[in-house]
Write a structure and sequence with these properties.
The complex is a heterodimer of chains A (172) and B (180).
Chain A (H helix, E strand, L loop, with lengths): L1 H8 L2 H8 L3 H28 L8 H29 L1 H5 L2 H26 L1 H6 L5 H23 L16
Helix pairs in contact in A: 3-4, 3-8, 6-8
Chain B lengths: L2 H9 L2 H8 L3 H27 L9 H29 L1 H5 L2 H22 L5 H4 L7 H27 L18
Chain lengths: 172, 180
């Protein structure tokens, strides 16, 4: 992975980003705004499940309101994220926080896909009974924590020193 | 005591020293700051998009507002607290940073925009609550709010790149080096 990161850092695309110092802060800012949209969308869906907001809306109405924004923002996050990896490959790919974040991201995205799928297939059941299950409410809180951890881990990419000897960065 | 002294005393306070000397405190505080600000932006955007007549248009404005506003304020509280903690670690550095000043100015403008909305268009909400597209002044306030908050995010990121940050940024890009 270190060799790959070093190779990527020498690529023309990476050098272009490295030499234009405004690119990384700009891309990071779009990335943060994108996370805001994701957090807002996930949060409102979770609040609806918990019964703390949007009680005049059905689950499906809430999912239709926030689903497209969630997927749209995730697309922005993926493209800006790729730009950041290409621009600073060693910093990203050799960071423990980055890989932990990617693992949590896989869980967060799979949960969202599975939930949307389950809701569209068993709409009546979800609206009438499943939404009130303790396990569903527990999952709603858990998914919020998953996205919460994604934000924390994302910021910790900048602070590889916090991992001490767990750091993936090769010692020179 | 003049202002420069005040900033200096913030920097030398026990709390500021503790944060500066810890390997974990600053990164954790900054992460919580990002968490807070994404929640502020994510929830206020829901309300602004409703004001613009772009999303949630079939729901009354006041319903959407009652769903999000308290969360926006809670998240804003977290962001201000963590922001203050970061500020005291390098008070004069941040205070003299141009991007930081612009960020504070945009925050103030955001507050003024909200206040004007509350005192004018917000007062007549009963007349347009159900309308898919609120009156022009409301849409204008919504657009301004989105622009101000996105501006705050950009300037905040730029503060991090121009004040050097807490940990010596080995492989990280540091715009300070540009001028050395």
């Amino acid at each position: 992975m270190h060799h790959f990161a070093l190779w990527l850092a020498q690529s023309r695309a990476s050098l272009a980003i490295q030499t234009n110092l405004w690119v990384i802060p700009t891309v990071q800012s779009f990335h943060i705004a994108g996370i805001g949209i994701v957090m807002g969308s996930v949060f409102m869906m979770d609040l609806r499940i918990l019964g703390w907001a949007g009680q005049d809306q059905t689950l499906s109405q809430t999912a239709r309101r926030f689903g497209p924004w969630l997927w749209g923002a995730l697309t922005v996050l993926l493209s800006t994220g790729i730009l950041m990896v290409v621009g600073e490959p060693v910093r990203e790919l050799m960071s423990l926080a980055f890989w932990l974040k990617m693992s949590m991201l896989t869980i967060g995205v799979s949960t969202a896909i599975l939930f949307q799928h389950a809701l569209s297939r068993h709409e009546r059941e979800w609206e009438q009974s499943r939404v009130h299950l303790r396990s569903t409410r527990f999952l709603a809180m858990l998914t919020f924590l998953v996205w919460f951890s994604i934000i924390i881990l994302g910021r910790l990419i900048a602070y590889d020193s916090v991992w001490g000897r767990w750091s993936l960065m090769p010692v020179n | 005591m003049d202002f420069a002294n005040f900033l200096g005393s913030l920097e030398s306070s026990g709390l500021a020293v503790t944060i500066r000397e810890s390997l974990y405190l600053f990164p954790v505080i900054e992460s919580l700051h990002v968490m807070g600000l994404t929640m502020v932006f994510g929830t206020i955007a829901i309300l602004d998009l409703r004001l613009l007549g772009v999303a949630s248009t079939h729901r009354p404005f006041t319903k959407v507002a009652s769903d999000v506003v308290r969360w926006t304020w809670s998240a804003f509280g977290l962001t201000v607290m963590t922001g203050l903690l970061m500020f005291i670690t390098n008070a004069s550095g941040y205070f003299n940073n141009l991007q930081f000043r612009w960020k504070m100015a945009l925050l103030a403008l955001g507050g003024i925009n909200m206040l004007i909305f509350e005192l004018t268009t917000g007062r007549t909400v009963r007349r347009w609550d159900q309308d898919a597209i609120p009156p022009f002044a409301g849409r204008f306030a919504g657009a301004l709010s989105l622009i101000f908050w996105i501006g705050v995010i950009f300037l905040g990121r730029w503060v991090g790149f121009t004040t050097g940050g807490h940990v010596t940024p080995g492989l990280d890009i540091n715009l300070d080096n540009l001028f050395k």
